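Hey, can you fold this one?
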Amino acid sequence: MARGWESKSIEQQQADFVEHNKSRRPTLSPAEQKCNRIREGLLLARTRLLQMLQSATHSQYRQILERDLAELDRQLSALDPPSSPSAPR
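Sure. Predicted structure:
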């Protein structure tokens, strides 16, 4: 019988945790969700390119990878919202 009470307590703790996390996350618009997915994809591609660049030995191949890396960096910077002016201090 005590085991039943214990499992109920654990269930309640898990439900509280999930509810607490839901309330802390801001709700993102579909456009923000799409932007986040694109950013994550670009960051994954960038990580892969860096790994390939580290193991590349042929100079022409390295140049291609560096060019691709620069393009990914450009795309990532284009996704960043324009920085707002700093608040007065």
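The two ends are 61 Å apart (CA to CA). Let me know if you want another pass with a different chain boundary.
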